[in-house]
Amino acid sequence: MLVKAEVLAPPAEDELLLLGLGSPAPSPSLPSSAEEEEEEEEEEEEELRAAPPARPVEAPGGRGLRRAEGKRRPGRSRGAPRAARTAETAQRIKRSRRLKANNRERNRMHNLNAALDALRDVLPTFPEDAKLTKIETLRFAHNYIWALTETLRLAGAARLGPDGAAAAAVPAEGSPSPASSWSGGAASPAPSASPYACTLSPASPAGSASDPEHWPGRFAPGPPPPLPRRCL
DNA sequence: TAGGCCATCTGGTCCT
DNA sequence: AGGACCAGATGGCCTA
Description:
- The chain is mostly helical.
- About 40% of the residues lie in helices and about 0% in strands.
- The chain has five helices and no strands.
- The protein has helices at about 5, 15-20, 30-50, 80-120, 135-160.
- It starts with a helix and ends in a 72-residue tail after the last helix.
- The protein binds a DNA duplex through helix 4.
- One of its GO terms (biological process) is sensory organ development.
- It comes from Hirundo rustica rustica.
- This is BHLH domain-containing protein.
- One of its GO terms (molecular function) is E-box binding.
- Keywords: Developmental protein, Differentiation, DNA-binding, Neurogenesis, Nucleus, Transcription, Transcription regulation.
């Protein structure tokens, strides 16, 4: 079976650098708590390496535990009884795994954000440096793709005339939009009655993709009319 | 100050 | 067993 990561390979590292995102590794400006955690994790791993094994070690040659030596080793053996120490070790292992999982999750989210940034880069915005939120990026990308597809379809139809056969290369009238699976199979990117009524709709089925009227707000080629942020 | 957005942590589930 | 993915919780920052 294919792993998702193989299908949706993350952007190459140099690509991320181009985007000014750096490597997927945690950013250098980590909050101090993260630094502390890394330190803590290192310390914990160090301790795990150095910690006495959960089970008592057998003497190399013979049966039985190596405890007839008469003397207690100073240092680690001092303190809590063995049961408590094994419980403590288990806790440490658990904690160490959690911290590792946290790191992986952080990197995963960084990769996701890098992909979103790459998507933002190819979306036209006004002003150019306006940063879309995550949900805005996804919704606008959806509508943008739909609009481009629609533009292609119209251009193809115009070139070939009313009965042009090659127009079939692009979605035909009435066929589902490129992302008809969006929101559970809605036929249009942003039907006004849907929960996405407030989303970007560069070319809703009611209008033409090239009609500037359908590029509202900061995404319009011209000066943006004031729009409530919620309705971007 | 309320609400939105975001990063991070966390525990659960699924997959290899 | 360990990693990937996911969703809920939480706290910080920002803006109207």
